[in-house]
Write a structure and sequence with these properties.
The complex is a heterodimer of chains A (365) and B (320). By secondary structure, chain A is an alpha+beta fold. Chain A contains 9 helices and 20 strands. Chain A has 2 domains: 4-233, P-loop containing nucleotide triphosphate hydrolases (Rossmann fold, 3-Layer(aba) Sandwich), CATH 3.40.50; 240-355, Nucleic acid-binding proteins (OB fold (Dihydrolipoamide Acetyltransferase, E2P), Beta Barrel). The model of chain A has no long low-confidence stretch (mean pLDDT 91). Helix content of chain B is 66%, strand content 0%. Chain B has a domain at 107-314: MetI-like (MetI-like fold). The two termini of chain B are 45 Å apart. Chain B has helices spanning 6-9, 20-52, 56-59, 74-80, 110-141, 147-156, 162-175, 182-207, 210-218, 223-234, 236-252, 255-260, 269-275, 284-304, 306-314. The chains are: A alpha+beta (365), B mainly alpha (320). At the A-B interface, strand 6 and helix 2 of A face helix 9 and helix 10 of B.
Amino acid sequence: MARILFDNVTKYYASVKAVDNLNLEIKDKEFLVLLGPSGCGKTTTLNMIAGLEELSKGDIYFDQQIVNFMPPHIRDVAMVFQSYALYPHKNVFENIGFGLKMRKYDTAEIDRRVRDAAERLHIEHLLDRLPSQLSGGQRQRVALGRAMVRQPSVFLMDEPLSNLDAALRISMRAEIKQLHHSMQTTFVYVTHDQAEALTLADRIVVMKDGVVQQIGSPDEIYERPENLFVGSFLGNPPINLLVGELVSDNAGVIFQKGRFKMEFQEEISTKLQPHIGKSVTLGIRPEDVNEQGAAVPGLSVSGTVNTVLPMGSEQYVSMTIEGTEAFFRLGKEHKHKGGDNISLDINRNRLHVFDQETERSLLWG
Amino acid sequence: MTLQSTKFSVPSEKWKYKSKRSERTRSAVIFIASIFLLIYVLAPVGWLLSSSFQSEAEIVSVPPHWLPHEPTMENFNAIFFQEFEEVTYETRRKVDPAAGGYIPSTAKDLLPSMWNSFIISVAVVILNLVVGVPAAYAMAKIRFWGRQASVYTILTTRVIPDIALVVPFFLVIKNLGLLDHVMSLIITYLAITVPFTVFILVSYFESLPDELDKAARVDGCSRLQTLIQVFLPLARPSLVAVMLFAFLTSWNEFLLALMFTQTIASQTLPIIVASFTSDFTISFSFINAAGVVAIIPPVILALFFERYIVSGLTAGAVKG
């Protein structure tokens, strides 16, 4: 059992606020991902769970117990680091078994658990080697093994995959998900990679400058970003943002930027009614378009293709909308090339509208 | 611009091979220079060794004998086996120093003083590690208020010349009632060597990644266990370097020993060797034999830790 609760937690480094008034409940057996750009406070948050950093203000609870000053070796947590942090002078067996040895398990039990973990990670043939004799992927597995054998109630991971090459990263993602499933314990995972966050998480916490931007399931975070930052941080290629104005029209509220107009569906239009006249940012995800023959003003975008980026299974095309370059993802039915005139029907259920001033979503949150 | 301009069109052979001759000249020059440097460094030691096996008469011969013509163990026998009467003003002419066999009155103190030096040096080394290792770990890996300042303060104390500290040290030692006691030297030598120990180890510990420290602590180590289980095994070369430094500093120190010691209860090797020159007559060959005995322990240490020495002195030196 391990439920972790942050109650108004703030962390300063000298005068810099690394984490600002964090309130967060991590549920038992949950896979929670802390996502954000570097310097957003996600690693500090993780270190505070581990007990490696002290809090400046607030409390952290493990279940019902306050653990603010409980040193790391008393907390029942295991951690995997970005640089793996294997002990260079110990071989793989000793590295994996070190945590058990420090907790005074008997030799037979250590041997059994280390071999068991090594087998699950397919590194049983490497047990006698030193870390310097291993490849990056093998070191990563040793680091995972070192955390696994302890069967901790909280499993912490600090960008564990970012030093691996792309192919290995994807297969390790699957293994980590599998690991969570089989271990039935709480996972807290830090990354700046949105794809990792979306594939692994039960819930994602998006952070920026020490402040939580949004907490939700991967779908909620992706489909209903509560502010401009969350909207633009997730998505590849990133969401297209057009700065314009909300104006009133026969069709209700519409978005206008120069000659470009976009109508909303009725439900959304009603929601936006109080904001008429406001300067807003319209967000269109690159995949929320369909190709069609004729341009319909207010319902589609049309223009000349600047460049085409073929991606194998699909293609990205870029076009300029009122001075802003936008990318759209299209299937491969039509082969496009630079200079083509195309018009794209926009899925108006999935538009995003952010207040230009507060950057908050006018639709959600 | 293309690279196909005329300048590049005719491949020149000039830089393709290194001429064998220039390479040979280079090696020869380096070799000869090394020989000179070795002679410069080793000649005094060679002479020390050679003259310790010579009689007083042979040692002053011109030209000097680099290899003793009549090797003698007389000087070493005097140190290890013979008992000598005290030489007084009246007995000073009993033996003619030029004929050899003249041994200073403090000769019998040589081995006891060596034992004192040994006790002091070993104690200083051990206490250096006991104090310096945890201090260096804390300064390198624990964030606390005044961390940077303490590193610099410790280092700054080494800027003050020892002679300036003699009087304050003397008063402290006197008030502690430790004059003419080996403890007086252990205490003062610690003040000299610990800053260096801390500085070398701080640079080394800082060069080890923070994540290693964190990993160990999450794995169940307390701070002290992290230090002992993870950091110390990795710091072995640096530890050897600081141990050697502390040992040699204590072994060789003269000024403070001269101030705080009065009798053979606490006098160290350098004091006794120096005293050989202040007798009624001086036997250079005997002094040289004493010198040979004095360098034996450091040489044994250096040979024993040889493979760690160079890496230890440079480790952490790049960073920090």
